[in-house]
């Protein structure tokens, strides 16, 4: 599949999607949003892909919506389609039944920050910086930020970050519970791909269903969440991986899951 604004590669069951417009700090153009969606669909249909890593080229992860494209001017219809396309990208990340790790290599601003929050696991370089940079260009929050931010840091801090656009560093993001880990830049790749390798060995159906259950659980009541869990567990209990997990435990050996 040919891409112009992202790089897609798959090595050892891990797909890496690299945002690749370094001259604009990987600003999220409508082309880039569409290409990331296509890349996620490609990863979904590739049985060899167990995990997806999303990162940026150069010194930014993603500097948010494409200001240069917006400067040229967008009709109401074009602006709505642009933001809806970014919304489709967020939904594609949520609906992929494979874990997505965001490797935050630098600035994650505006929609770029919220693409990070739509990932399942987030590891950031120490130099990474995060900003809900919308008001500075006269825009409201988007890219799922109104959904993920308050659910991640709470209402008060969500409004502080969104209303002030304050840029926070990776340590503060970690302390706020926005990311999982901060590492030295030179260790980012190793940390991300060793986590990805571990996840790639997990029972992929149970892992994918766990992602779906937690995502759906965010907006379900307890009864519905328990019903979803029972449904998912009934599927997992029919898998070869479940049988292998039980056998490995009783034989006191490491399980070898096959994703079946
Ligand atoms: C629908 C979605 C909506 C949204 O997401 S709205 C939010 C949009 N994003 C922002 O408001 C952030 C804008 N960018 C910045 O605030 C700064 O950048 C940074 C703090 C991220 C980095 O600042 P520094 O290190 O000084 O770099 P630099 O000179 O500002 O940028 C380097 C080149 O990258 C281009 N660029 C940066 N952000 C964007 C963007 N969001 N859209 C398009 N281009 C961008 C600049 O213009 C410049 O380019 P050149 O070298 O040609 O002057």
UniProtKB/TrEMBL annotation:
<dbReference type="GO" id="GO:0018812">
    <property type="term" value="F:3-hydroxyacyl-CoA dehydratase activity"/>
</dbReference>
<dbReference type="InterPro" id="IPR014748">
    <property type="entry name" value="Enoyl-CoA_hydra_C"/>
</dbReference>
<comment type="pathway">
    <text>Lipid metabolism; butanoate metabolism.</text>
</comment>
<dbReference type="GO" id="GO:0006635">
    <property type="term" value="P:fatty acid beta-oxidation"/>
</dbReference>
<comment type="similarity">
    <text>Belongs to the enoyl-CoA hydratase/isomerase family.</text>
</comment>
<protein>
    <recommendedName>
        <fullName>short-chain-enoyl-CoA hydratase</fullName>
        <ecNumber>4.2.1.150</ecNumber>
    </recommendedName>
</protein>
<dbReference type="InterPro" id="IPR018376">
    <property type="entry name" value="Enoyl-CoA_hyd/isom_CS"/>
</dbReference>
<dbReference type="InterPro" id="IPR029045">
    <property type="entry name" value="ClpP/crotonase-like_dom_sf"/>
</dbReference>
<keyword id="KW-0456">Lyase</keyword>
<dbReference type="Pfam" id="PF00378">
    <property type="entry name" value="ECH_1"/>
</dbReference>
<dbReference type="InterPro" id="IPR001753">
    <property type="entry name" value="Enoyl-CoA_hydra/iso"/>
</dbReference>
């Amino acid at each position: 599949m040919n891409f112009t604004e992202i790089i897609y590669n798959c090595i050892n069951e891990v797909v890496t999607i690299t945002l690749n417009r370094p001259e604009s700090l990987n600003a999220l153009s409508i082309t880039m949003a569409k290409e990331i969606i296509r890349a996620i669909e490609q990863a979904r249909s590739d049985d060899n892909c167990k995990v997806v890593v999303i990162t940026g080229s150069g010194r930014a992860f993603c500097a948010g919506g494409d200001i240069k494209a917006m400067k040229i001017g967008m009709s109401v219809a074009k602006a709505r389609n642009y933001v809806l396309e970014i919304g489709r990208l967020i939904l594609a990340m949520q609906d992929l039944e494979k874990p997505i790790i965001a490797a935050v290599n630098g600035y994650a601003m505006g929609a770029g920050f919220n693409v990070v929050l739509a990932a399942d696991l987030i590891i950031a370089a120490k130099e990474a910086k995060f900003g809900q940079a919308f008001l500075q260009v006269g825009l409201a929050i988007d890219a799922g930020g109104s959904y993920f931010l308050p659910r991640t840091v709470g209402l008060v801090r969500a409004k502080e970050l969104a209303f002030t656009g304050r840029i926070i560093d990776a340590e503060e993001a970690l302390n706020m519970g926005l990311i999982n880990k901060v590492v030295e830049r030179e260790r980012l790749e190793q940390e991300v791909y060793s986590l990805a390798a571990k996840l790639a060995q997990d029972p992929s159906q149970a892992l994918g269903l766990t992602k779906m259950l937690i995502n759906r659980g965010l907006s379900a009541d307890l009864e519905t969440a328990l019903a979803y869990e029972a449904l998912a567990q009934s599927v997992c209990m029919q898998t070869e991986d479940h049988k292998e997990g039980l056998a490995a435990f009783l034989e006191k050996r490491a399980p070898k899951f096959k994703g079946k």
